[in-house]
Amino acid sequence: MAAGVGPESLAHFEDKLLYHLVDLTGERPLGQLQGVSEADLAARMTRELGIEESFTRGEEFRGSETRETILAGVRNLEGEGLVEFDHALGVLSTIRPTSRGRRRVREWRDEWDKRQQQCDREIQRRILQDLDRIRRADPGNYQRSSHLDVGALCADLGITPTDFLANAHRLSARARSWPRSSGRASGAHEGQADAPLPVVNRSAPSHSRGPQAAPLIPCGRPGHPAARPTVWSHRRFALCHGHSGRGLARSRVQPPQAAHSAAARP
Fold it and tell me: Which residue of 50, 124, 194, 242 has the smallest Cβ count within 10 Å?
């Protein structure tokens, strides 16, 4: 996930409290005695409160400082007109967001979506740009000996391998929807977001049809330890630049030492 996206990007305790309240109760209005309790909110904010989730379900929670912290935050939000709550001595409260509170969370989510889309476009542009640079550096052998260093790309962009995989799969999905006769997209040499896309070619290339795109093959299940990418070779992830696709084959992610050995072969 991009920096500045999601509830973790909220700076204030009360803002996170409001986000989780709306996330729990939904977008519809709630009436009196409807909503969630301070225990429900505390269970969502265990990191900020320094507690275990199981603590919020026990009797000790009712008289704890943790509960008072949640209630203090709720009162602050109530003073801003963002929440309402029904409080009675000795029992847990019933807390619900107002229409103003729901609208504020909706604005945060819209802003996060815009930031995430911008980040995704940058990741995809960088993937295509790096692949094009590698292809141009060695057009005769890049399919066999070159590789895309995913670790370096992630470090440069400040993203995780999961972010890389998600966007690589998006590029593949977009490419599958393109007509094969469409050729390369405009803007490829300028490194724009609409650069030529990698295409999944699940069947053997038919040389009688002329140039075809090289395959983009996922490296296993995202999140699986064995599937975390270190190197993606051009056998697996190549640009749609009109080459024949000869010699391309499905392969696993190469370990770093194997990738360097492959790069050293003539």
Answer: 50
The C-alpha angle 170, 176, 177, rounded to 5 degrees, equals: 100
Please state, in angstroms and rounded to a whole number, the distance separating the CA atoms of residues 157 and 61: 43
Residue 7: count of CB within 10 angstroms of its CB: 18
The string of DSSP letters for 170-227 reads HHHHHHHTS-GGG-SPTTTTTT-TTPPPP----S---GGG---PPPB---SSTT-GGG
Task: Give 115-178 as a DSSP string.
Answer: HHHHHHHHHHHHHHHHHHHHHHH-TTTHHHH-EEEHHHHHHHHT--HHHHHHHHHHHHHHHHTS
CB 199 within 8 A of CB 175: yes
217: Cα within 13 Å, side-chain hemisphere: 19
Q: Give the angle subtended at the CA of 25 by the CAs of 24 and 26, to the nearest 5°.
A: 100
Question: Can you give the residue ranges of every domain in the chain?
Answer: 7-97, 120-264
Q: Give the whole-angstrom CA distance, residue 71 versus residue 171.
A: 46
pLDDT in tens, 17-71: 999 999 999 989 998 889 999 999 999 999 999 999 999 999 999 989 999 999 9
CATH number of 7-97: 1.10.10
Strand partners, 137: none
Q: If you average pLDDT over residues 151-171, what whole number do you get?
A: 90
Residue spans of beta strands (DSSP E) within 218-266: 231-233
